[in-house]
């Protein structure tokens, strides 16, 4: 992913994203390399260290979530919940896209 795309997805400025990426790179969590088809651009990649650390942090949450949540609902109830959350996400994404198009300097 390019730093510009990452900035857009995170809702950060280019400068803010650069600061974050510099810190993450210093810690060994990301690396930057030239874009494979456009040598003028840079792409950011998560390192193996980042993947291991994320796994250490997230795996217990996912395991506990499965044990505590999924085991308490039937397949039909889970399907209903997934449908609800999917539609809620679609609504939020539509409004997020709408807000991105608004002029922040409009009074």
Automatic annotation (TrEMBL):
GO terms for biological process: response to stress. It comes from the Bacteria. One of its GO terms (molecular function) is DNA-binding transcription factor activity. InterPro entries: HTH_MarR-typ (IPR000835), MarR/SlyA-like (IPR039422), WH-like_DNA-bd_sf (IPR036388), WH_DNA-bd_sf (IPR036390). PROSITE patterns: HTH_MARR_2. Residues 1-90 form the HTH marR-type domain. This is MarR family protein. It comes from Mycolicibacterium cosmeticum.
């Amino acid at each position: 992913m390019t730093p510009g795309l990452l900035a857009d997805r995170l809702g950060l400025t280019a400068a803010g994203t650069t600061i974050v990426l510099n810190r993450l790179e210093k810690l060994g969590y990301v690396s930057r390399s030239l874009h494979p088809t456009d040598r003028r651009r840079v792409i950011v990649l998560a390192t193996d260290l980042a993947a291991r650390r994320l796994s250490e942090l997230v795996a217990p949450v996912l395991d506990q979530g499965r044990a505590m949540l999924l085991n308490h609902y039937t397949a039909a109830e889970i399907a209903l919940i997934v449908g609800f959350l999917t539609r809620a996400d679609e609504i939020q994404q539509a409004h997020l896209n709408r807000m991105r198009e608004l002029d922040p300097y409009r009074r």
